[in-house]
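User: For documentation purposes, I need each entry recorded in a consistent format: the amino acid sequence on its own, followed directly by the corresponding structure tokens. There are two entries in this batch. Please keep commentary to a minimum and don't merge the entries.

Assistant: Recorded as requested. Entry 1:
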Amino acid sequence: MTSRWTRLSTSVAALAAVALAAPAVRRGMVPPTVTDRTAPQSPAARPAYSITYYGLRLRFEPEHHSVRGDVVIGMRGPNRIAARGPAPLTLDLDTTMTIDSVVVAGTRVAETRQGQAVIVPMAIAAGDLRLVDVYYHGTPAGDALVFGRHGDAPVISSYGLPYSARSWWPSIDAPRAKADSADIEITAPSALVAASNGRLVARRENADGTATTQWSVRYPIYPDVIAVAVSNYALLTLAYRSPGGDSLPMPFYVFPEDLEKARVDFAVLPAMLAHHVARFGPYPFMREKYGVVEMAQESFREHQTLPGYGSHLITGDHTNDWILAHELAHQWFGDALTVRNWSHAWLNEGFATYAALLWREQSVGKADYLAAARRQMVPETYNGVLYVADSANVAQMFTRVTFQKGALVLHMLRHVMGDSAFFRALHSYVAGNLYRTVTTADFERAAETSYRRPLDWFFREWVYRGGAPEYSVSGLSVTPSRSGYRVAFDVRQCQDSGVFRMPLDVALTTRSGVVVRVAWDSARAQHMAFDTPDSVTAVALDPDGWVVTANAHAH
């Protein structure tokens, strides 16, 4: 086994040597049954096995749209075992995939299946290491692994949405099942190029007209962002040098017909990477790469170190720079920091969407940033709740609420905290949770530490509840005062939902220009008064659009 998977830890390598000698029972192909990959069917209660390693050895046959695999899963026993004794291991694998055999610590075991759940009889003492070796084959259904064509060439590509890994390989298909490392070995027709996560180790030509490509991941990674892509790719390479002088390879795998357009579009990525590093901290996977691969699916997805990018997005005119900025940000928010469960999906998608806004702010200007944020303030964005109570409801995770409202929450929090404290919080949130799993509470804690004041009220209003304030201004009066003039007015929150607490910029229009003051509004009705040197002719709330509201400007 150590010859198949390079640089395994000593303990896992010793176990792997045992697994190598185990029998592999292969059965014939069974007609697949299509199931819904978005509805997890595995039992909810599982032992707290700690995943240490994934080793995927895959053979693709483009003509048959099939995959045959041998997946090694390394794990450590739970710290505590229930009084009734160790529970079996439950893996996730779609019913379109056929299990050929399962080997545990060198011994063939008889697995059972309950829908997408593969139940493996085994017991691991607390703290012990164990390898499970699963041999399987099948024709995947759905879009998690697609066999397609572009021109005369085949293309095979994965698409890592939540609970999608089970569609094409056996794993504990949850973000908490983050392995310490992984190896991906891809065998496909030798005329094709095989790309995956991490660092390219080797490619060897086989006697049967295929080639085997080995990729090594030595950073923590969870199943849904393990990626494969196979086609007749052309390779475009750029380079990034970190502030400390380290060089990062940037390989881009694109269809030959899209190479020149990709050369234009992807040229912006080194500058984007420098921007994100300045905002969020060092690139998390410096010892490996940052690349992009063109995929069969007409979408985009954040696979670790190798996001997938649909061919229609490569335009040669920078139309989709925002998508490149979004996917790059996922290397921090989603890959290096992984949500503990999908209820907190906004920590991935909202942060990546906001990162694209920050890139606009730097590359185009502050006015463009503010205008782009304001365009997201529509009812279908802010009426939903960011926290997804049902972590199996994938459809609810991929709406404007998760993406746009998530970004707007960060936009508003920046205004609440101020730039210095806010961006310091982003850095500390990343640094303090690097390569771990996170929840909203982890980000709230980092924000409060930087701000040095409680922010639980903000997260209650904007993460765990829907709606937005709707302001009205009435009773404007302007009277002379010792310092000039006294302007007073009443602000009312008119929405049917609960009252919101937010700082409001108040723009006071005078004969000599606009004066902006800040007032904290936290009541259904509130009286506000300010002293100004000149008479005031108009009052506008939140003129720059820092607060999500249906009427950002009130007169």
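Entry 2:
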Amino acid sequence: MRIYLFLLSFLFAFHSFAQIETPVKWEYATSVKEVKQGETIELIFKAQIQDGWHMFSSDFSPDLGPIVATFAFDKHPSYSLVGGIKPLKPKKKFDDIFGGDYTYFENQGVFKQKVKILQPNPKIVGTFKGQACTNNDGKCVPLNEDFEFNNIKVIATASTLPTEPSVVATPIDTATTVEAETDTSKNINTTAIAAAITTPIETKAAATEGSLWDLILLAFGGGLIALVTPCVFPMIPMTVTFFLKSSKNKSEAIRKALIYGFSIVFIYAILGLVFSATLGPDAPNIIATHWLPNVLFFIVFFVFGLSFLGAFEIMIPTSFVNKIDAKADQGGLAGIFFMAFAIVLVTFSCTGPIVGSVLVLASDGKIIKPVIGMVTYASAFAIPFTLFAMFPSWLNKLPKSGGWLNVVKVSLGFIELALGLKFLSIADQVYHWHLLDREIYIAIWIVIFTLLGVYLLGKIRMPHDSPVEKTSVSRLILAIASFTFAIYLFPGMFGAPLKALSGYLPPLSSHDFDVPGLIRQYSGSVKSNTKEMTLCDEPKYAEKLHLPHGLNGYFDYKQALACAKKLNKPLFIDFTGHGCVNCREMEANVWADPVVLNMLKNDFLVVALYVDEPTKVADADVYTSTYDGKPKKNIGSQNADRQITKFNNNAQPYYVLLDPNTEQPLATPIGYDKSVPNFVKYLESGKVKFKEKK
């Protein structure tokens, strides 16, 4: 009987130790079974997700933390991608740990990708990478799945322009089903992966309806704001009066005003097309992953902001403006068009920064977003000219021009300076520069919006401002709003999440002065009875990676193992990831406990092995995995491979207490569990077992 119980407990322990999770299965299909060469079809990716698990979608910010789903298509002359991958109705949720919204699927997830068939027997293959997490115990596993569409029958060459077939659901039944292979290479840069559908063709997940509507609202608002700048507002009555005086009757004036308005919209639409064509189809990926465009956009916003503040004027060459103005005098439809062109050029010193800002905000899309942004902006800009031509009596109700116009312009300058920091922040996070960590970013915003409030009260005068004898009610209300916003930002200096601004601020992980974390770290009755250990040498990769709560430790297994042997300390291995939400929860809620923190500082040598760190290793350290036969070329892929080959597990977080002399676990490794007593018990068991072996 004892032998039976022993064998049973052994099998149970082995089962709990060996956990290769496969929570996602895939089905692949096409929108039609037969296609003509030159036509466009849809590829359908259908993920069957195990109960109790969720898989992250492809349409949220890469800066947030969780790993975004990406589909990498191998380049082949038999097809071309049309647009980006589109998730179908994912759920949305705010995450307290990373301070932002992410999208995800439960039970089932569907993605679609349009492709144009260029040759018979198209070869469409690629790789899916992503992450799935449990809803119960919080485990997360990386996903890596190779896909192939080999059931596309090309029956003929289309004789007309490519057409887009309707989506048919039935081909799903004939799809090839494969089980998702977990990612052991994990060669993913989580700070840039959101837009990274790479290797070698890069596409970006198409903008969601929400982001497109955000752009439309911002562009329309920008057009309305442009109307009340010093360069534009005085032109409204002048232009409308010109149409009325040069027309035989009111209907002709309205017709000319409509042509004038449509001309403005057309000019800006062309500008959007030129902008998107200049950037090229890979612009969204470059913007998301490369420092250069983000730094350039920051400089653009900075220059525009200084221009609005009155440091200098951004002007179109006078000779060019004069030529366009001369063409406007020729009359007829062409004259009206060139008159619209002239107004666009003449007002550029005020509208240029707003137009440039809208284009930059639309640059994460391809042709559609820049064009929609410009058409929306131009519509808001042009509508008043048409309306006042229809109802000229409204001109009498317009406020008079004056110093308030420059107040609008200067206020926009402050806002431009604040918004430009977002692009510098993206580059800073991707390349670990640490120039603009969260508290520095917030501090700059506090200063900017405090100065804006002081300016609105008339305490600061810019170069083109009129003296302020008294503060109007409208300026007072705007000043109150600016000061209120600055005060709202202030707790963020000390670690407050500031959820309303999560999309604009750097992640909480970049915050150095985290007061809540410090309180958790140093509060409690349990104090350290021993001096915190000194490391044997400088940890590798410490300039990029870090441990929470001031812990000392390593980020390289071999280096940590050597030091643990030297110090005769058990090794605490933390298999973690930049995009692991549950890892951050464990660190914030369990590691921060005084008892746990004291034990990690004094009784163990901690090594954090990031499974998604993209830093490449030296060529001499590259090896081919015995598990999947793939070369492991970076830190993350090697750490992930170590976890799965040595401990038969691929979920994070995953904690191993290791005897450095035998490289064997001192206790059964554990994963996500926010119970502090359970974690303390686990650490104690490893500590006692190690002492017994001495």
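Summary note for entry 2:
The CA atoms of residues 231 and 347 lie 5 Å apart.
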